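Limitations

Structures in this collection are predictions, not experimental determinations, and the ligand pose is part of the prediction. Treat each record accordingly. The example that follows, with WQD as the small molecule, is included so readers can see exactly what is and is not provided: the inputs are given verbatim, and the output is the predicted complex.
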Amino acid sequence: MTWLITGGAGYIGGHVVRELVADGRRVVVLDDLSSGSPSRLPAGVPLVVGSTLDRAALDAVIAEHAVTGVVHIAAKKAVGESVEQPLRYYRENLTGLQNVLEAAVAGGLRHVLFSSSAAVYGMPDVDLITEETPCAPMNPYGESKLAGEWMVKATGHAHGLSTVSLRYFNVAGTAAPELADDGVSNLVPMVLQRLTTGQAPLVFGDDYATPDGSCVRDYIHVADIASAHLAAVRRLEAAEQPIALTLNIGRGEGVSVLEMIAAIARITGLTTPPQIAPRRAGDPAGVVASAELIHRELDWKAAHDLDAMIGSAWAAWPHRP
Ligand code: WQD
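Predicted complex:
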């Protein structure tokens, strides 16, 4: 049994690959290296440099490595960029996924694990988001993930594949310095970058209907994202009849931007007070997961707290002041 991990040379993909290999799985990675790096892969893991837009490459890697399951992580994920370049996002995230699904069916695969996102919910008006909360994505990125879930579920139903879609909430931290997120497009790296260059962290709005006025999110350690993928892989491998699951990955605990900045100051000792900046378009006030269903279905719970996320990101941060 070999698992194909698309996007396996990336920040999240690299953690998932390491987790599956450590648990004894045979893995092959397809990655176009547009944001990933071969240095993230453990020794001995084959890397095919290519895009999910290349159907022939997918067919070849599935045949040459006797692939039986796919973890599809390769995608574009910058919300703002998706608003500026919707067609690029639909192509990369949906045409790419369609190729993966067609190759999976043609290659006789039995398992599909799809990387989805809390972005499918849009601006939910609930304190805790369950998998039954209505999905109303607010940008092409979130739309591409919701439509992707529909494609995965319909393909699994029509062709007898077992599928799991995992909705990531806000991912942070790293399991090892060499696997850290080298993009600076999310709160923790953006705050670290400003603090280590002598600038005040920015708070995009403090007039939301939240306890301290700043946005609330459910932060989850990337090592927990990886362990949730392993739990899903085990569930897929054990399925005697086709299954179809859609699960949140979060901690069920909301943390505000101001609370995150205070925690980063406490851990790093960089205490420049934050500046309040204008709201960022499209930001929901609160996005916090109910993690009940994943616990029930996969017997999985997050194991890392906020200090572990921030501490590991700080330990891996290359630019000390
Ligand atoms: C978090 C909060 C900002 C930077 C992310 C991913 C998305 C999806 C869901 C995977 C927001 C505020 C940020 C800063 C700030 N994940 N902020 N100052 O927007 O919740 O979405 O998780 O699929 O792909 O982008 O995450 O880290 O951008 O922002 O005040 O310097 O922090 O306004 O409220 P977001 P984020």
